[in-house]
Design brief:
Methylamine Dehydrogenase, Chain H, 6-stranded mixed sheet, mainly beta, single chain
Length: 418
């Protein structure tokens, strides 16, 4: 691959510490026609060939309009001692963030590749900044988040601050940088002209969700997760659907996307202990969220008022985010102690189990393609969960765009026929 693609670092430096009390600007959430096949960010659940953010769209439904039929690897990028996060794919480009697996190596950044594996540009952070999140793409900008050890930009006593970066999708130049007092910032969610990041606090109860104008980086509103915040668990990205933002931490809340006002809260679900791998997912008027710590429960909640529609008890402790079709919820579970790990298929109607596959290599959020369910490096038959084929190597953090699977992990590979 060519090494002469441009390397950029903070070429347009616009930094500010997002502070409480800023005026609400309002993003003007877009109004879309009612459809079971479209999310609030305009993603067609049945035919999308892009993968612009975590789980494919702002609602986090994890449904792709394609996917490969075999484990043929077309190209590989990386294998250089770095950990590559889930790529975001828009058109003929994919954007992937990385950080080093070596505690003594501060290398962190974003690389833009063409869908045939050629490097377009690379962006490196300063040594004090580490990118911890997946990328998200919206309207010419690439968003990525993490933490900075330089807390001087905020009036805070904490050692670190959360960081949100916006990069030009064509050049990799930094357009703006925003910092938020807290532990770090997790994967951004982009919807209707806004970008949302969750920043867990250094102490329990300090978590913050901040909504920024995606184009300018100006803060629109913030929501203090209060009793739902946690310093012991990483922060899951939000889901956005039909003008409502769904945020999970120690509990669950639904907020108006334009103003940040509370629509409903479920502080009684205190076993969620959500982490970055179990973001809520929304489809057909139901929010799906599983426990991220000890608990082993998947909740199906009414998107309208937060009431419980059904629950599923797995016996394992940690749930991933879900992939949702009109009839089936696919979700993976991880055991902290002894319960089994694997991937479930459940009925969206009542949560009844359709099948459970325990031989998958990783237990990250699955993705439903046209032919297979992709669970990390494994392709599962949607009828019974049997493993059809697997990609060799330590790969997870998967994206699906068109007929190609893009797993991250020790490297980024493109899987699918030419």
């Amino acid at each position: 691959m060519p090494d002469d693609a441009p390397l950029t670092r903070r070429t347009v430096l616009q930094t500010s510490c997002a502070a409480a009390g800023i005026a609400v600007l309002g993003s003007g959430a877009a109004s879309l026609p009612e459809s079971d096949e479209t999310t609030s960010d305009g993603t067609d659940l049945a035919t999308t060939t892009d993968w612009p953010q975590l789980q494919g769209n702002a609602a986090k439904t994890g449904v792709a309009g394609g996917g490969p039929a075999s484990a043929t690897v077309r190209w590989e990028h990386g294998a250089d001692g770095r950990e590559y996060h889930q790529p975001a794919v828009r058109g003929d480009s994919l954007y992937v963030s990385y950080a080093s697996d070596d505690p003594g190596d501060t290398a962190s950044g974003v690389v833009a590749l063409t869908t045939d594996g050629q490097r377009r540009w690379a962006f490196e952070t300063e040594p004090d900044t580490e990118l911890l999140s997946d990328t998200a793409v919206g309207d010419g900008l690439v968003f990525v988040a993490g933490q900075s050890s330089d807390a001087s930009e905020c009036d805070t006593s904490t050692d670190n601050v959360g960081v949100l970066l916006a990069l030009d999708a064509e050049t990799g130049e930094e357009v703006y940088r925003r910092v938020v007092a807290g532990w770090f910032a997790d994967t951004p969610t982009v919807a209707d002209g806004s970008v949302y990041v969750v920043v867990p606090g250094q102490t329990q109860g300090d978590g913050t969700l901040v909504a920024f104008d995606a184009e300018t980086g100006e803060e629109q509103w913030r929501y203090n997760t209060g009793p739902y915040g946690s310093s012991s668990y990483t922060a899951p990205p939000v889901a956005v659907d039909d003008g409502i933002v769904y945020v999970a931490a120690m509990g669950m809340a639904a907020l108006d996307a334009e103003t940040g006002s509370v629509v409903w809260e479920r502080g009684d679900i205190d076993s969620l202990k959500s982490h970055s791998d179990n973001a809520p997912a929304v489809r057909d008027g139901t929010v799906y969220i599983g426990t991220g710590g000890y608990g082993g429960t998947l909740y199906a909640l009414s998107a309208k008022d937060g009431s419980t529609e059904w629950t599923f008890e797995s016996g394992s402790e940690q749930f991933s985010s879900a992939a949702i079709t009109s009839e089936t919820v696919y979700v993976s579970v991880t055991a902290i102690d002894d319960p089994p790990e694997g991937t479930y298929a459940l009925s969206t109607e009542d949560g009844s189990e359709q099948w459970f596959q325990t031989d998958v290599a990783v237990t990250e959020a699955p993705i439903r393609g046209d032919q297979y369910l992709y669970a990390g490096r494994d392709a599962l038959a949607v009828e019974d969960g049997s493993i059809a084929w697997s990609v060799e190597g330590e790969h997870e953090n998967t994206a699906v765009a068109g007929d190609t699977l893009y797993p991250g992990g020790e490297s980024v590979v493109a899987v699918g026929e030419e």
